[in-house]
Amino acid sequence: MDLQAVVDDIVRDLQPRLGEGKVADYIPELARVDPKQFGLAITTVDGTTYTAGDADTSFSIQSISKVFMLTLALGKAGESVWKRVGREPSGSSFNSIVQLEHEHGIPRNPFINAGAIVITDMVLAGHKPREAIGEFLRFMRFIADDDSVTIDEKVARSEQETGFRNFALANFMRGFGNLQHPVEHTLGVYFHQCALAMSCVQLSHAGLYLANRGTNPLTGFSVVSPKRARRINALMLTCGHYDGSGDFAYHVGLPGKSGVGGGILAIAPGKASIAVWSPGLNKVGNSALGSVALEMLATRTGWSVFGT
Amino acid sequence: MDLQAVVDDIVRDLQPRLGEGKVADYIPELARVDPKQFGLAITTVDGTTYTAGDADTSFSIQSISKVFMLTLALGKAGESVWKRVGREPSGSSFNSIVQLEHEHGIPRNPFINAGAIVITDMVLAGHKPREAIGEFLRFMRFIADDDSVTIDEKVARSEQETGFRNFALANFMRGFGNLQHPVEHTLGVYFHQCALAMSCVQLSHAGLYLANRGTNPLTGFSVVSPKRARRINALMLTCGHYDGSGDFAYHVGLPGKSGVGGGILAIAPGKASIAVWSPGLNKVGNSALGSVALEMLATRTGWSVFGT
Amino acid sequence: MDLQAVVDDIVRDLQPRLGEGKVADYIPELARVDPKQFGLAITTVDGTTYTAGDADTSFSIQSISKVFMLTLALGKAGESVWKRVGREPSGSSFNSIVQLEHEHGIPRNPFINAGAIVITDMVLAGHKPREAIGEFLRFMRFIADDDSVTIDEKVARSEQETGFRNFALANFMRGFGNLQHPVEHTLGVYFHQCALAMSCVQLSHAGLYLANRGTNPLTGFSVVSPKRARRINALMLTCGHYDGSGDFAYHVGLPGKSGVGGGILAIAPGKASIAVWSPGLNKVGNSALGSVALEMLATRTGWSVFGT
Amino acid sequence: MDLQAVVDDIVRDLQPRLGEGKVADYIPELARVDPKQFGLAITTVDGTTYTAGDADTSFSIQSISKVFMLTLALGKAGESVWKRVGREPSGSSFNSIVQLEHEHGIPRNPFINAGAIVITDMVLAGHKPREAIGEFLRFMRFIADDDSVTIDEKVARSEQETGFRNFALANFMRGFGNLQHPVEHTLGVYFHQCALAMSCVQLSHAGLYLANRGTNPLTGFSVVSPKRARRINALMLTCGHYDGSGDFAYHVGLPGKSGVGGGILAIAPGKASIAVWSPGLNKVGNSALGSVALEMLATRTGWSVFGT
After folding, report:
1. If you count residue pairs, one on A and one on B, with CB atoms under 8 Å apart, how many are there?
2. What pLDDT digit, counting tens, does each position of B222-240 carry?
3. Membrane spanning segments where (chains A, B, C, D) (predicted)?
4. Topology of domain B3-62+197-300, per CATH?
5. How far is C100 from chain B (nearest CA, A)?
6. How large is the ipTM?
């Protein structure tokens, strides 16, 4: 299979549809992005990267960072993570608070906002916010094997100033005793990890350990055990796209995690790590063209985990 | 890999735990089953079947039939099925009615009771209940390649007499216009398809088309297209275990569908169809030892769809 | 105060607005009513009746009958009634099922459909449906002091054929063990008591015991104790208008019960029983002009229970 | 009727039950109160005050202040208040956030926490928090005709430090645009108005305008119009006791507002303002003995608004 031809075809086929969907506007900084951009990068487990379109342009990875924060938290707290957050699809939108009231402050999974805030609280673990942010940034540079990865302070500040819903979620969980640090500290870290800026190429490198039994083939370093890599993939598949997770599994058939910045990370276990980016979002908040591109890719490659 | 050794090991290892969990008691007929039974059957895509324990004992497949009814409905109505039922995990229990009120009578997915009732209504499609039941039974015998598969009338009657919640769900959806036949007709078929009695061996044969690109290798007959087989597998993975679907994906990593009779059908795409049965259920209503057995099997075989 | 002048003024003032609101269309029989009708009848505790408009025209009292069924059930079961139904406003629409799932089949109050179905089940109490319907009809004739009160069989049948939501509620509660008779029996009685046809004059007579310490001054017969009369009035005020109860208390300030037929019964304790009727309904399902008329009446008479 | 004898009897009859219920412990400062206290004060519309027990002991009026804040907000914004808060019973607990998500940040009524926070935001109306607190304190001294009424700073601070749920509610509503000031400002005022310390005597004086057509007979000053007094009473009756409002209306039959400090203010329109206090709370969070005392009082006096 000529992967370069596949990615070129996809970018060419989607050219007429550039600009589809609606750019996220609830964070002022994100609303300014040019919607007619599209990037795609595939890095296979042998370390080769195939790119097309704006694959080297940095964008705000937003919720995709939840995968990496979970990886960090599992490294620190192991399976005890699951005492404070569930592993089930939520059946509701990314920022719903209803479920938290019904289930006593325990978020359904680590990939909705409430869950990621709890995960952030675990990563914080007694450190100063600045230190936790630094640790996360170092981790991301390590797994992407790229020291140019940075946090966009403007985006972080923009989220801080408008993130009332996240303040509500955090305070609500604090009221149930499921946050251990002051809300401002936990959210300070949370808003920064969301604000990571990466390109498709960098992101496809960063996710490679999930496709390769927990080890990054670019560096040879083990990030997690094979079992943990499988489990993170399982969570991405069942919970990675909020209330559109079932649909993504149905159409694409790969573990994936989307962000409102328009990026999606998808994993083809044993084969490749895929990053796609296009700012316009569909109704459930996932990149419109990104989703289409991944469905095309899955069809062309036969990489669906559900059969060829 | 010596699969026979694997299944033998699993049955031997679980011997001391026989009787764990709680037999379903809400249907009187099911409550009478001896809880200390355990069966396992694996049929690989080359047509070989490996068995251990009570693999030839018939049990009530209950909700596992929802997979086959969906297959039938997709055959009749194609993708228009999704106008009347969703494809997302529900985030609630198998018989919840709350979601139906919030979402105007459209069930979240075909594998919760409400969704399966709508699917049954599609299969009924203007026929008499008796005809639809007959069609379903013929289909099951065809895909199991075994004419001895039958419906347990006692179980069907038992469900009919005590299934108030299902009558509530059906009437509720009828009120929203999402059932097209009299409630008694649709539920008559529904209770019968739930009451199918099969052994692990039969069930592993019946599910084989999902592991083998839509075609049953035992008979050579195509049941669905490869694409549809993938999609049904995706639905099983995200929605197959009610509010324990995320957990099953995390621990086992295979598309699966459980029933309150204690059976679970799991699919290893490209590799095998697996049926396990043990009547005791865990807290979320899935076979306790069956879930454990499948986790052991996935670990031993490396068949998880999320990586080796 | 010249009450006849008051009622004449109200009817005259509302003349230009006749036809406002929307006639209930979910029961076919009700949808056929001429919307430009309006009747008002006040019977004071000294037994005088003041009327204006279509005060002698029969209409379907619908949910207003819930007050009388509750009276009957309290007579049979006393305060033990409250083991199977609550006394709190529901905060949701008249036919919501969500609350029932969250609160294990116990309806919030006797004036939402679910609650009235449970109350009907208590009135049924081992009798045949036909007998219970007969008992209710005799009771209504007794308290209205008028043997011409009847049940409109066409309306009863119309509800029976289209009342899927009520079948859902009843089956749901039966599943929780909160109905003691077959669903068809309980609902058979329920649909008939809803279908009572009365005029404003008859209805104002029937409600008079609630305004007069439990005793009907027209006949001298005691219907309930003074304490029970107060308590039924309290329930009407907090729960009598579904999710518009707070609004009705705010604007009118009298215990009241509305029906989708466009009737409202209101009680001025110690002073009068008031019946108003106009078929057009407002957004929360209460008679649009009926509500306005009662607000005008309360203002003119100073009868609000909340002060002059 | 000898009211002094009535209040003496009630205090004597309840003597053996002192200490019943459970003192609120979620605010540390409140948890320290001696539970064996009980006070009762009735001030009739002719200005006479009848007292018994600890009627002169100050306690934290907590949510009872919501009645007075609403009075202030109506004075400033008139009926436009109802654009930002509803008038219906909530059907859920005092600090539930579920309803807010379902109804887009508009609280159900001004007597649940979320509603009172919005009302506070209206009273704040562009002023500095300190000024708004001062205005509220002056208003309370004015209507109680007593300059010794104060705010307990310790309680205010205690709530500020532990009120995570209120921070969640406020941020949530801010996210919907239903708060116009910084969350810290609005909640700063909110926590202070809750922390008002008053005795039963003072509280019965402060509420007197609601019993006397809007005018305080002690001072002769008009606080609100007769119509507005009726309407506030209506809201107290339907919404004044959270999810126990229906029960309170059923048993007591008077408009009332409770606080977790163990106080209850009840209004007998045209007759008297009643304040009762006993720290132990019942299951729904209202003073256990206070509720009993008011039921005894209503029975003895025949003051129920629902009939004698």
Report:
1. 125
2. 999 999 999 999 999 999 9
3. none
4. Beta-lactamase (3.40.710)
5. 9
6. 0.96
